[in-house]
Amino acid sequence: MRRWPKILLEADARRGIAARLHATGLAFIWMTAWAQIEVVDPDHHVPSSTHDRTQDSEPVKLPAYPNEEDLVGFFVTSASNFKFFIDRRSLSIRSDGVVRYTLVARSPQGVDNVTYEGIHCNSSAYRIYATGHANRSWSKRTTGWRPIERKSVARWRYALLGDYFCPAGAPILTVADGIDGLKRGRNSFLDESDRP
To answer: By residue range, what is the domain housing residue 60?
Structure first.
């Protein structure tokens, strides 16, 4: 029986440990990245009495899929490499206080993540009505209402809530108001409320 020199066995053991550490590191990176992705679960429900009472009183009709020329960019944070857009044709203010819109979140590689969503201004909650696909089709999958939180990785919703669509907790009055706010970087109502 052939015996391997001790130094070769130790080197082999170190390579095995290094391979396991490398695999563990890759798994950690993958899990961290996956945690940043919002998984749409249509059965998820916010167990808050405020959000339980938040209902869409109007039926959901999916808008046309967004075209590049209709996208209006808006600022979220300099900490993100993603670019965010709202499809101007999809923006609507419902009688129940829900602002609906198509959101396009574009990765640095140019991949678009498209969702049709609604924000309920009075309760600071959102829901997703549909997700878009590369073939420009929708999959309708309405989620329960979820709270919009400042510390969330989905900071774009916090920006839409506070800076663009729900200034002072109330929905914008017109679609033009919303588009103007997106272009300017904040809703004009916030400029007026800052004045002495």
So the answer is: 49-194
Is 82:120 a contact under the CB 8 Å cutoff? no
> For the whole model, what pTM was predicted?
0.69
Phi/psi at 58 (5° precision): -110, 140
Report if residue 112 sits inside a domain. yes
User: Residue 43: is it exposed, middle or buried by C-beta count within 10 angstroms (0-12/13-18/19+)?
Assistant: exposed
CA 137 – CA 134 distance, rounded (Å): 7
Residue-level pLDDT at 10: 57
65 with 98, same domain: the answer is yes
What is the count of structural domains for the chain?
2
- Check whether residue 88 and residue 160 sit in a common domain: yes
Q: Are 154 and 125 in contact (CB under 8 A)?
A: no
**Residues in the chain with pLDDT values less than 70:** 1-57, 152, 186-196
